[in-house]
Amino acid sequence: MEYIENKVFDEINIGDSVNLTRTLTVEDIHLFALMSGDVNPTHIDYEYAQSRSLQKVSGHSLWSAALISNLLGTQLPGAGTIYRKQDLQFHRPIVLGDTLSVTITVTDKNPQQHTVIFDCRVTDQNNIPVCTGLAEVSAPLEKVKRPRILLPKLHLGNPGAQLARLVNMTTDYEAIRMAVVHPVDRNSFMGAIDAARANLIIPILVGPQEKIRLVAEQEQIDLRDYEIINTEHSHEAATKAVSMARAGEVEAIMKGSLHTDELMRAAVQRGTGISTSRRMSHVFMMDVPNYPRPLFITDAAINIDPSLEEKIDIVQNAIDLAHALKLETPRVALLAAIETVNSKMRSTLEAAAICKMADRKQITGGIIDGPLAFDNAVSEEAARIKGIESDVAGRADILVAPDLEAGNMVAKQLEYMAEAQSSGIVLGARVPIALTSRADTILSRMASCALALLLVHHKKINSPPPTNTPDPKQNRLRISYLGRADSSTQETND
């Protein structure tokens, strides 16, 4: 057991000195801001801090003074010390990642008042002074030796912050026309309405009119400003929404209160659907409070047991989504149970093949590595301990699951055990499909709308000029990624 033992006044000599070293972390900054209420954007707003002269988030100057108090209260004099006065000068800002060395040295004693004066010096990792000055304390007269109390571990999180930031990214874009399929419950209906109010979408409500009006009445929403397309049931709603997307009448689709397979069956229907030469796949954007960046997980909703060729499209779809969110070079981790290639584990062989295909530019736009176990993908410490040298390990932006079951379990575990929130989108179709869950919050639905909006505008900016469109009824051979002609036929899409 560790103990705290003080020095009483008579045991303290001029010249006595103690020190400590601490590195400023994000948690330190957030905890100090939470305690003090000082939410100066130079401390907690990354984008604002990037625009300032330091181009880094800076810590609170008084954090270094708190480290001085640490030494006074726990080491010299220690337990029973009363802080009386301080006179400190702060010479330069401290920024995230700075390592501070704090030293206090006894310079004077007052026997009548039992006070002690300390010279205080705080320097950074380059031995440049950060803070200097004097501190005066009343030293204890009674000897104390007590067990050191273990402080509780604090977890600082801001659930939903990444999703809210995603919504804020759409400020400069025009709203898109979105078919909302079967919005007959509160969450799906209000998700669409709130997204419209946030200027993300112009919702076209597709479903049984009476059920939609009933929900609107319960939520006191005036429907005169919204277009409703009446259908008999959810199957018809899905078919109608897909037809509108195919005709260019809407730029995106959002799933409402119906089963995923109802909507996707209409989307992939040969001759009437909205499939393209690219395999459709789903991406969860996860907002995990204790992960420092948005985390994309794919595929956890559509492709049950994808082949190597299908995984190539799944990876490229996720990279394209990251680009739409202005993540220029996303780090892609191909997940498996282990981080080495094992001939008996298909997931490791396919991961190795995909990495080599990326080396040959068959997949572009990201840094890809695998196989990687989950811990090595998201924890730099785990990767270091296992000796994994990789630009992706510990810093993954995109997690590619070996199959749907694994991906779905990872996403749901993060949601229910790590307080993560998510938004979801289907890629590879003619238009983005916001594939939300019936249990999703309104913020999650709005974030999915924001993903769709960003994708639509990204495509507009980066699409080549239109060319003559071939006859859509003519069957054409699809050339696979391995250079073979696919025996099945597929309708040519725009």
3D structure, described in words:
- The radius of gyration is 29 Å and the shape is elongated.
- Residues 468-494 have low confidence and may be disordered.
- It is built from 15 helices and 20 strands.
- The chain has a domain at 3-147: Thiol Ester Dehydrase, Chain A.
- Helix content is 33%, strand content 24%.
- The protein has a six-stranded mixed sheet, sandwiched between helices.
- Helix 5 (161-168) crosses helix 15 (442-462).
- With 494 residues, it is α/β, with parallel strands linked by helices.
- The protein has helices spanning 26-36, 41-44, 46-50, 61-74, 161-168, 186-197, 209-218, 234-246, 260-268, 308-324, 346-359, 374-378, 380-385, 404-417, 442-462, and strands at 3-5, 17-23, 82-90, 99-110, 115-123, 129-138, 145-147, 176-181, 201-207, 227-230, 252-255, 281-287, 295-298, 331-335, 367-372, 398-400, 421-427, 433-434, 475-479, 485-491.
Number of strands: 20
Q: Measure the end-to-end span.
A: 71 Å
* SS content category: alpha/beta
Which segments are poorly predicted (pLDDT under 50) over 5 or more consecutive residues? 468-494
* Spatial order of strands in the largest sheet: 15-14-16-13-12-17
Mean pLDDT over all positions: 88
Which CATH class of the domain at 3-147?
A: Alpha Beta
- The shape, in one word, is elongated
User: So, CATH architecture of the domain at 3-147?
Assistant: Roll
Measured by DSSP, the beta-strand proportion falls in 15-25%
**Proportion in helices:** 25-40%
Q: Per CATH, what is the topology of the domain at 3-147?
A: Thiol Ester Dehydrase, Chain A
The whole-angstrom Rg is 29 Å
Main β-sheet description: 6 strands, mixed
CATH superfamily of the domain at 3-147: Hotdog Thioesterase
Total of helices? 15
